[in-house]
Amino acid sequence: MRDSVWLIEETESTLDMMEKLPLDVASSVFTFKLNVTKTSSIFEIKEVYKPYHEHAIISEVIGHWTSIHGLSMTNEPLWERRKDLRGFQFRIAVVKVSTLTLFGLQLSGITYLFDF
């Protein structure tokens, strides 16, 4: 799913289905929903992601589309919008690997090896 962009109509059933997906903070899943008023029809565009797999989905408005004004999207960068990881605890491990560096010095036909 990482290289794909998904645009899905937002309904109660699609939101329920997305809760079960292994979405992450870098997902490219967007929903749209038509809001009709007496004077206009506006498509609301939201991005859907999870800060981590066990978290509930987050669905936030990032733009609108109308036949009169066209597409209007947020200018805020993706990682600025998703910077709040909502309690995610990083698991970090450090592995120390011993490396051997040999340094050779040749004097009067004799090679001296140093390791450090």
What features would you describe in this structure?
- The protein is mostly beta strands.
- It has one domain (6-87).
- 10% of the residues lie in helices and 40% in strands.
- It is built from two helices and seven strands.
- The strands form two sheets. The chain has a five-stranded mixed beta sheet with strand order 1-2-3-4-5, with no helix packed on it. Strands 6-7 form a two-stranded antiparallel sheet.
- It starts with 5 loop residues before the first strand and ends with a strand.
- 8% of the residues are buried.
- The model has no long low-confidence stretch (mean pLDDT 87).
Spell the H/E element sequence: EHEEEEHEE
Distance between the termini: 46 Å
* Whole-number count of domains: 1
Uncertain regions spanning at least 5 consecutive residues: none
Mean pLDDT: 87
Radius of gyration: 26 Å
